[in-house]
From TrEMBL:
<dbReference type="GO" id="GO:0005886">
    <property type="term" value="C:plasma membrane"/>
</dbReference>
<feature type="transmembrane region" description="Helical">
    <location>
        <begin position="277"/>
        <end position="296"/>
    </location>
</feature>
<keyword id="KW-1003">Cell membrane</keyword>
<dbReference type="InterPro" id="IPR037294">
    <property type="entry name" value="ABC_BtuC-like"/>
</dbReference>
<dbReference type="Pfam" id="PF02653">
    <property type="entry name" value="BPD_transp_2"/>
</dbReference>
<keyword id="KW-0029">Amino-acid transport</keyword>
<feature type="transmembrane region" description="Helical">
    <location>
        <begin position="243"/>
        <end position="270"/>
    </location>
</feature>
<dbReference type="InterPro" id="IPR052157">
    <property type="entry name" value="BCAA_transport_permease"/>
</dbReference>
<dbReference type="GO" id="GO:0022857">
    <property type="term" value="F:transmembrane transporter activity"/>
</dbReference>
<protein>
    <submittedName>
        <fullName>Amino acid/amide ABC transporter membrane protein 1 (HAAT family)</fullName>
    </submittedName>
</protein>
<feature type="transmembrane region" description="Helical">
    <location>
        <begin position="210"/>
        <end position="231"/>
    </location>
</feature>
<keyword id="KW-0813">Transport</keyword>
<dbReference type="GO" id="GO:0006865">
    <property type="term" value="P:amino acid transport"/>
</dbReference>
<comment type="similarity">
    <text>Belongs to the binding-protein-dependent transport system permease family. LivHM subfamily.</text>
</comment>
<feature type="transmembrane region" description="Helical">
    <location>
        <begin position="77"/>
        <end position="99"/>
    </location>
</feature>
<feature type="transmembrane region" description="Helical">
    <location>
        <begin position="111"/>
        <end position="135"/>
    </location>
</feature>
<feature type="transmembrane region" description="Helical">
    <location>
        <begin position="155"/>
        <end position="179"/>
    </location>
</feature>
Amino acid sequence: MNPAPCFEMVCDMNAFLGAIIDGILYSAWLFIIAVGLTLIYGVMKILNMAHGTFYAIGAYMSVTLLGWWFAQGLPPAGSIPVMIVAALIAGTIVGLVVERGVLRFFTGRDPIVLLLVTYALFLILEDVVKLIWGVDPWIASDPVWTFGNVYLGPLVYPTYNLIIVVVAIVSGGFLTWFLQFTAKGKMLRAVIHDPEVSQAMGINVSRWKVSAFVAGSILAALGGAFTAPTISVAPGMGVEVVVMMFAAVVIGGLGSIPGTIVGALIVGFVRSLAVHYWPEVEVFSIYAVMAIVLAMRPQGLFSGVELRKI
């Protein structure tokens, strides 16, 4: 009996299992970043081009605090709270500065104007990052090795990757709970659906817009903070996530959290399968899926038709 066919079958199964696991891990990472963009658009109707830079600032803040943490000889397990704190600091500061310092002056302007403004902010913040942290790469990989490895069948992954999945699940679960089952969440949903009526009912719409923008910024920074230990943090890293982030949001439907979950999963699995089986078309495959979805449903999978007020 020739064992070669059986061996090839096992290898093919392992490769497919690896593609599925990589797709899940990538989708979780992408969701953390993209859901912040979804929240901002849902409340403010701003397609924030600077969102990728918020992600980068969170990563830089994370490696900065992690470097200090490990330099003090503090427990490695404490690196997780440190990254959360880094995201809170970075997201809050950049969110408040951008919204209060710039975007509030463009309230009610044409969406194209807001898109151009956020693109200008993206370019400005990219240079600000270089001025603060320089152009050399920063590395803080200690958290990845701290938690060891986990065996998923025949494959070995850093346990840290599963922590990112947990962060994505907790972030999505918390947002869903807040919006669906709390009084303040219902107020925010009212602002999303009809800000004018909400204002007439006594809801401080401006305050909710600021809060939503800061929350979305924190989520972008959270994605960067937890990504930082797995990569070399360098200028331009925010640009790299923009395509995938917007693809997930557009496929799922602008302003829809369930849509963002599905969009992130679609992008994650398509990219993973392309990387494993046809790496030459990795980026093209994302554009192709996005084009197919928009051709059949221009508003995205989970977004209703937006009514225009006359």
